[in-house]
Structure formats: structure tokens, C-alpha cells
Write a structure and sequence with these properties.
Length: 68
């Protein structure tokens, strides 16, 4: 049975994600507190961010007043 080789996953730090989205780091943390995005993963005491390709980065919340 052939072994599967997994590609290394990139870790996107908070500053880079903020730049990517065009917002400040404070805004990212406000979005985390409001439940709009997942909290960053802690790799070390001073290292936090999100895994690249994480489809669940955004937490989709229903919009009030919208009927389906």
C-alpha cells in the first residue's frame, strides 16, 4: 500500500491575515469577539494565526430579517 505524502500546511499570522483582508489587527480580534470569524490558533505564547486553506475561517451567521 503506497504511503501518502502530505504537503506542509502554511500558517497565516494575525498581521498577515489583517493585511490580506485590508483591516487592522484590532478589527480581526473584534470579529473574533463578535463571533464573525474563528479564533486564531495558538502555536506558542506569542504566536497565533490561522491555517491556510481552512474553509471554516469565516463563521457564517444568519442575517436577521432575511427569509429563505
Amino acid at each position: 500500500m503506497p504511503s501518502q505524502i502530505q504537503e506542509p500546511r502554511c500558517f497565516i499570522r494575525v498581521k498577515a491575515r489583517a493585511h490580506e483582508l485590508g483591516v487592522s489587527r484590532a478589527t480581526l480580534y473584534r470579529w473574533v469577539q463578535a463571533g464573525r470569524i474563528k479564533p486564531p490558533t495558538r502555536l506558542a505564547s506569542r504566536t497565533a494565526g490561522w491555517w491556510a486553506g481552512d474553509e471554516n475561517f469565516w463563521i457564517i451567521t444568519p442575517v436577521v430579517g432575511v427569509q429563505r
